[in-house]
Amino acid sequence: MLLTQATLNLLNQQISHEFNNHTIYRNIQAYFSNLDLDGWASFFGLQAEGEYSHYTHIISYLDDKNAPYEINVLSYTNYQYKDIKEILDIYYATEIVTTTMIYAIAEQAKADNDHGTIGWLYTTPVSEGGLSLVHEQIEEEDSALKLQSEFMQGFGNSDQLNQQWIRIINENLIRRLES
Ligand SMILES: [Fe+2]
Ligand SMILES: [Fe+2]
Fold this sequence. Notes:
The chain has 179 residues and is mainly alpha-helical. It has helices at 5-34, 38-64, 84-111, 115-123, 133-153, 159-178. The longest helix has 30 residues, at 5-34. The N and C termini lie far apart (44 Å).
């Protein structure tokens, strides 16, 4: 069954969106790398790779369906971040927008009676042995929220203490990524 134009449009949009997510997280990785905070940098490097895999995952579905697509790289944004608090807000907000968009694809596919696309969204793993796009999204939202609340627990008004806290989380992230 061919994809309807409405579903195809949403999937096309999603390709560019995932690519843009990848760009956002790479820029956050660069921000931390520049500060020599390798735990934070690696964490966002991994998020960036995840986004890239969503991007290729959707492309391969459209290839399987012989559906046309194009990749629109969004226009340049000034990737300057005020502080980590702002970055964590952006991180969580990015994941929420992404979930909303993926659910909109599912809704459209349901309206079209497109069981192939619905099944693909819920069951086809993004990477070998991994989760589907819908289930991976739940995990990504969760990890954004967890990192944000972990960070906010120790974040206060003292610049000096905040710097120490940022380093502690940096060490935590290094340990977690190694295990
Ligand atoms: Fe994604
Ligand atoms: Fe994500």
